[in-house]
Design a protein that fits this description.
- This protein is an all-alpha fold and 277 residues long.
- It has three domains: 11-101, no CATH class; 107-185, no CATH class; 191-277, no CATH class.
- It has helices at 11-17, 23-32, 38-48, 54-65, 69-77, 83-92, 96-101, 107-114, 140-151, 154-163, 166-172, 178-185, 192-200, 206-214, 216-219, 222-230, 236-243, 248-256, 262-276.
- The longest helix has 15 residues, at 262-276.
- The protein is elongated and about 75 Å long.
- 34% of the residues are buried.
Length: 277
Amino acid sequence: MSEKVKLTISPTVAEYVRPGTSLETRLAGCSIASTLAVEDHLMLLFCLSKDAETSVRTSALSSLKDLPKNIIRKYLESDHSHPLVLNSLPNLCDNFSEAALSTEPESSDIGSKTDLISLKDQTTEDKTPEADAPVDEDDEQFLSKYKTAQLMGIGEKIKMALSGDKEWRAILVKDANKLVSGSVIKNPRITEGEIHTLIKAGIQNDEIMRLICANKEWIKSYKIRKALIENNRTPVQNAMRYLGTMVEKDLAGFAKSKNIASVISTMAKRLLLNKKK
């Protein structure tokens, strides 16, 4: 059973959403939200987006949909961002992805809270031939980062997932929060080898699989397309499309495989027969 997250609001937000608040005041809250501190701004709109009155709900959702990227970035960087709001932003804000990708972690922000490790390796790594070598999970530095991750808030994890080094990526891609794990795939420093390893490991996160399939550069790789076909979490329509790019030897393997969806193996048999005509 997943742990319930308590929603806590400030007195400023409560003024517009507490039980018994008039419709006029709640509607005013949708307009006044942008004048508040970023934490209250988003929390107020989030609460009003759940309002029973359609006019209030629609107004709040519209404001969230068009939320400026700089406001989203400030919220992601805030030490007081709320997990429930963070989890909802990707679905509510049109600008979320661009804002999240442009968010840069500041070592002082994380260090002030955890003060367990040096983050200097954020700017140097993955430039050696060993970049795609497996991460040593028994390494002292890896364990130190793993312990640090347990103390980090969701906003901090997202920032680190978007720009951290290979060890951080290996840790955060397994995070239970899909917003965090999905951000690892958006990290511009992630390598093709890491993506291939993730797919082969049978990752169960559908959002990660969607992001991989949507990346044209990764899909250019034959071995990634092959691994995606072999992974049952890959959307069937994508797997079928990649199947048409496989060589006969691999098609024959898919045609006999009991580990992939039957519709995929059946299509592999048809393609194989067509190639032999």
